[in-house]
Structure formats: structure tokens, C-alpha cells
Amino acid sequence: MNPLTTLVEARFDPHYHNKYATLMAAGNGALGVRATHDEAYATQTRGMYLAGLYHRAGEGETTELVNLPDLVGMEIELNGEIFSLLSGELLRYHRELCFASGELTRVVDWRSAQGLRFTITSSRFVSAQRLGAFCSRIAITPHDGSATIRVATGIDATQTNSGRQHLAERELRVFDNRYLQGRYRTLDNHSDVTLCCACQVSPQAQVSFSAKNRRLLQHTQQTIAAGESFTLEKCAWVSATLDGPDDNAAAQSLIRLRECAVAGYDALLAESLQTRRAWWQGARVEVESDREQDQQALDFALYHLHAMTPRHDERSSIAAKGLTGEGYKGHVFWDTEVFLLPFHLHTAPGVARQLLRYRWLNLAGAHRKAARCGWQGALFPWESARSGDEETPEFAAINIRTGLRQKVASAEAEHHLVADIAWAVAAYGQATGDGAFMAQEGRELLEETARFWLSRTQTVNGRLELHDVIGPDEYTEHINNNAYTSYLAHYNVALALDARRRSGGPDDGFITQCEDFLARLFLPMPRQDRVIAQDDTFFSKPTIDLTRYRAQAGSQSVLLDYSRAEVNEMQILKQADVVMLLYMLPWRFDSATVAANLDYYEPRTIHDSSLSKAIHGIVAARCGRNDEAYRFWRAGCDIDLGDAPHSSDDGIHAAAAGAIWLGAVQGFAGIRIEKGELHVTPSLPQHWTRLTFPFCWRGCQLNIAMTHDTLTLITDRAVTLFIDAAAVEIDGRTVFHLTDHGWRKEAICNPTR
Ligand code: IFM
Question: What pLDDT, on the 0 to 100 scale, is given for residue 720?
Fold first, then answer.
């Protein structure tokens, strides 16, 4: 494996505080910590989250991922002056996140208003091995004579979710003159949260403690000679009981903290690095490109895919902003099954299984929602947290002129999520051959989601139609026969029927109902120019010039000029819709239809959602339009990594990170799973000369490498796949060359593994 890249912030710019706090956030799937600065700035939003720890602050509020008491902040005083990069003179600034180790380091040379120079180096990481552990370290070196250094840090429970306080303080203690512990309980008395930390400083330092106004702090003071360094090493342990209070938890937390403090920063980092190294080994995508930002984008995406995924807990899933910010309240969307699960499915299938079990365990909530709405089966919540109930806020932003709030319609009608989950279940079954899962959780998920669709239709002139839905394009609400929804629902029911037939159980009418649904459900067919209607009324709506809005994709600027109701009545797409359908069910559409729909819909799409461009890129790659595909892929990378100062303030775009992987593997490597078969059709962009990645398929570990004219597959056992639509059996190391007649297997095969 080549060395992993890093992410550098070379300039201190308060406009970018929150963007970099997100991009450089630390995480291990259980704990996420935003990369805010040690010292306070009014414009930065601190954030620390535990996967699955949700709470509703009160009447009229929405359940949200709790922003925990802060452990990052340090009040630093240098010879009586408060250290802040907004005062004095900044002589050097460098912040770097190492994707390999997950360590974030900042080096600052600063001249105080008194004219004294200091070097301040700090670093921190979240352990990939011990899921509650967060460590930080700071070293301060005065250069112009001795200086008195004061640092106050500890546990700051004044932190809120933008003003909403979720935690009641229960107990603050300092044990053994060293270990600080804060115990909190969510206001609904459901979860206990414990934070412990210990700061290691020189024996020469004076240390005292204070507890005031929800802040438990250690105050350290030391006079340091010029050229010598003050150091402080902070180890912390963060934990919560997610399924009820537990008085024992605090003692356990303290034990874990003591173990960490004994090990110390360096040993914990080394141990965490080992764990991360093994993870990267099974996941990394390596690219040789003439643009170095391509490898960086892939490393960035995978770093965050690791950080956001709660591998330790099947009752939690991946939030749309991971564990990096308060955006979307930490809720789980279809983003998980469609944009994130494929990465796990093909690198660590057990994680994909767990994500599907999250839905299975939440079937009761999906049944409740379906029943409440008058339907049968499982209607999963559009936004999900821990309870499995619908968590979508009823209203979006307020119109401050009218005082009226815009209703969020997705929870009422964006039902494609149900079929998206079934799609992911099928993908899991095909990629793993996990019969046990498919016989129980898989079958139940497929059947219960299918039951929802069976009950959801209306009969119009003898055919079944799906009315009043919202497809992926959220700018077009409450429409009938959205192509994406109908095709996916059809697929969902077909999968359930197939599962039921295979299981050989008694027919309680389900089979007949499914057959009838499949025969009579209206699926919009391509018209003569092969374009498929997004819904019944789409073609009758006017178009407008979208150039201006497309240039500001992601900002929803069209809504500044038009009301939602007006946008609804025009051919304006927020995000891929029919194109999303082409992506999801590629085997259903011939290449001319795919190209015609891409050409029709893309110019009508603003790409105001981060789930859009990457999918267009993959579909373009499948059409053989490599340059276009690469442009879309890069635009997808720039959703978080681009220069826009505020695009990622409230958290990473998790789906966009997943789509960076999807674009490389499904777009350029041309990996496609069709009817249970694995197809590979490589087509690298001109900028790339080589692409390699690991890929799990049916219990077999494949290592795939490709250039513009060779394809090398290394397997740990025999497997069949399709290249140029022809089935080939490979074992060991197999090389293909691109010839005038397509990909040809190398005559001499060297079966070394
Ligand atoms: O799930 C998406 C949706 O498709 C578009 N709006 C944002 C959601 C969360 O990412």
C-alpha cells in the first residue's frame, strides 16, 4: 500500500472554522469529535457525539444527536495574555489531518501583543481501538525569555445543540487529585452520560481544580524557560447508556479512563494505528492520477466512512452527516442503504449485514408508521434515529415575513426509501450468499416492505398506480406514478415474491397478491425518444433557464427566486430521479434509453442535493462518456473538499463520501451487479493510469487492479465473473488485456495467490 495522503489547512481563516471542523473531525464509528481549535472562537461550533445517543429537548423540538460536553477546549494564557489567533501576530500556521493514523496536528508560531514569540503545537485523535477514548496533547515553547503558561481544560457542559440543552448535570468529581468525572442524564431520564478525563503535566506545574457553571476544569500553571516546553497530555473517556440509565456506568468509565491514562498518548496512538492499518488494508482504493487530489479525495472519503460507521452497535446506523455535526439532527436517511452500504458490502460485508439489521430491528416502528397512515406492512421513517419511529421535523425553515412554516413533505410521501431498503437487502444477499440472513431478516424485510406497496396502490382503469408520492427529486412533490418509485416498488415486490417462493412456505394469498401487483402496476415506459416521464405531469410543465442556479449547485438558490409551489410546477430537478432509477436498476434499460434520459434530465437538474452529481457520473461512465463521468466525479469530491467556505459547516455529506467510492468502483472500474452476477467493465478516466482496490464477493476476497489496457484480478479462491458480458472463471492471479476484440484473458495464468 502506498502511503496515505493527508488533509492540510495551510491558512488560518475564521470563515473556514466550521468547514475544517467538519472535514478534519475525528471518529471511530462510536465517538465523533469536531476539529475545532483548542482556544475559543465565537464563530466555531464545537461538537462531540456518540452514535445512537439521541434526545428530544422538549415540546415542539425534534429528536437529535446530542452534542456532548466539550473536551477539546483549552483556555491558554501566555504571560498574562489570552492566546487567540485573532490577536497578536500569526507567524506560522499549519494544521494537518493524517488519514492513516487519524491524528490531527496543528503547529502555530505566534507573537503576542507584548512581542513575545511562542510555538504552540497540539495534536489529538480518537482511538480506533478503544471506542470511548479521545486523547489530546499540547506543547508550548516560549522563545523570547521565560514565560508563565496557564492552561485550563476539562469538561465543559455548557455545550448545547445550538441552544438546546439535553443533559442534566448529576455529579462532578475529581478522584485522586487527577481524574475528573462529569455525570449527566438526558432530560427524559433515558440515558446516562459519563465523561472522564485526566491531564498529565510536569511535576513542577501547579495544579488546581474548579467546578462552576457546568464546567469542571483543571487549572495548570508553570513558568517555562526560553526554548523549554510546557506540555499537557489529556486522556478522556466518553460513554453513554443508550437503552436506559445505569448507575454502574460511571464507575466503569473511570476504570477505562485510568487504563488509558496509564497507557498514555503515544501508546494509545500506536495501538489505534494498528487497528486503522488493518482496516485500510481491506478497504483502500489506490489511484495513479495526474491530479494528486484524486487520491486525496478517495482517502478522505474512506477516512470518513470509517469514522461515521457504528460497527460496534447494530441498533445504530449511519447519520447523513456522520458524527461530524448537527446537520439533519444526526438522522438516518436512504443515504445509508443506497450510498453507503455498498462500500461496506464489498469491503466488510458483516457491517452491511449489521446496517440491514438496524432496519430489521426497527420493523416495529415501520409497522406503526404504516398503520398510522392507513397502510399495511413496513413504512420505514424517512428520517430515523434510535426508536425506529418517524423523526422528520414537521416543519422546515420559517418564512419570517409571514411567520408561516413550510411543511416537510418527505415523511408523508417520500416512500421510495421502503424499496431502497429492499434493494439493499437484495444486493446483500447477492454479494454474500448469506442464506441464514436472507432466510430470516432478509425475507422479513422484503415481505414487509412488499406488503406496504401492495397496500399503497390505487386502481385506475384496471391498472395499479402509485399516487401522491415524492421521488428522489424533492423539488417535485405529491405527484402520481413517479417512475423511480414505481420501478423500485415493482422490484421490491418481485424480490419478496421470489423469496417467498424459494422459502416454500404456504401461500396465504401473498403470492397471488404479488403476482397481481407485478402484472398490473403501471410502469412508465420510455416514449418514442426513449425518455421516461419522471411522473404523470412532468412533461406538461414549463422549463426555465437554470444556468444561474446550476452554477450555485448545492445552495438551493432557486428557492430565493421562486416559491416551492412554483418550483413544483416546472421541470426543475433538485437531484437525480429518473437518472437515479437508471443507476439502481441498470439491467432494465438499454444503453440508448440510458443515454437519452441522461441527456434529457441532466440539464433540468440543479444538483442542489449532494446525492446527485456522483450518480450522474456513474451513469455517464456506464454510457462510455468518460470525460463527463470524471467531471461529475470531481464535482462530487468537491462537495466537501471544494473551496466553498460554508458548505460543510454542519457536518460531512456522508452520502457524497460514499459516492466517491461508488464513482471509482462502479463508475470507472465498471463493477455492476446484475441479477446476482458480478460484471466488470473497466474504463478509466484519461487522468488515471491505474486503479486498485479490494473487493469482497461471495466470501471471496478479490484484489482488482486495472490500467487502460490491463485488468488483473487476484482471488483467494475460484470465482466466476463477467467481463464484456462473458462469464469467466478466475482463480489465483488472472490478467486480461484489452484487444480490438475486447478484454482477453492472458494465455499463461500464474496461480500465485
Ligand atoms: O436523503 C437526502 C435527500 O435525498 C436529499 N436531501 C438530503 C437528504 C439527506 O442527505
Answer: 95
pLDDT band at 119 (very low <50, low <70, confident <90, very high): very high
pLDDT in tens, 240-267: 999 999 989 999 999 999 999 999 999 9
- Report, as an integer, the average pLDDT of 652-681: 96
- Testing ligand 1's pocket by substitution, the residue of 382, 408, 474, 580 carrying the most ligand atoms inside 8 A of its CB is 474
**Predicted confidence (pLDDT) per residue in 29-70, tens digit:** 999 999 999 999 999 999 999 999 999 999 889 999 999 999
Indicate if ligand 1 lies below 6 Å from the C-beta of 620. no
For residue 382, pLDDT over 70 is answered with: yes
505 and 537 part of one domain: yes
- Select from 624, 647, 668 the last residue of a domain: 668
Sign of the alpha-carbon torsion through 218, 219, 222, 228:
positive
> How many structural domains does the chain have?
3
CA distance 65 to 50: 8
Work out the angle between the directed axes of helices 292-308 and 654-662 (0-180°, nearest 10). 130
Q: Which atom of ligand 1 is nearest to the CA of 609?
A: 5
SS3 356: helix
Instruction: Identify the weakest region by mean pLDDT among 201-210, 395-404, 623-632.
Output: 395-404
Task: Grade residue 396 by pLDDT with cuts at 50, 70 and 90.
Answer: confident
Q: Which of 64, 326, 383, 474 is catalytic?
A: 474
Does the CB atom of residue 320 touch ligand 1 within 6 A? yes
655 lines ligand 1 (CB under 6 A): yes
pLDDT at 524 over 60: yes
Any idea what the CATH number is for the domain that residue 191 is in? 2.70.98.40
pLDDT for 661 equals 98
DSSP letter at 225?
-
CA 538 to ligand 1 center in whole angstroms: 21
Alpha carbon nearest to ligand 1 atom 7, residue:
609
Q: How far is the CA of 576 from the centre of ligand 1 (A)?
A: 11
Domain that holds residue 192: 6-282
Mutate which of 329, 334, 335, 574 for ligand 1? The one with the most ligand atoms within 8 Å of its CB, which is: 335
Question: Do the Cβ atoms of 155 and 216 come closer than 8 Å?
Answer: yes
What is residue 256's predicted lDDT score, i.e. its pLDDT? 98
Strand order in the sheet with 167-175: 6-9, 89-98, 104-111, 117-126, 133-142, 230-240, 192-201, 179-186, 167-175
Based on the fold, state whether residues 616 and 475 are members of the same structural domain: yes
Collapse the DSSP code of 384 into the 3-class scheme (helix H, G, I; strand E, B; otherwise coil) and give the result.
strand
Active site residue 61: no
Return the number of other C-beta atoms located less than 10 Å from residue 37's C-beta: 22
Query: Is residue 290 a known part of a binding site?
Result: no
* Mean pLDDT, range 385-401, rounded to an integer: 89
Choose between 461 and 753: higher pLDDT.
461
Is the CB of 697 within 6 Å of ligand 1? no
Residue where a domain stops, chosen among 637, 668, 699: 668
Residue 334, annotated as binding a ligand: yes
**Cβ atoms within 10 Å of 671's Cβ, excluding its own:** 23
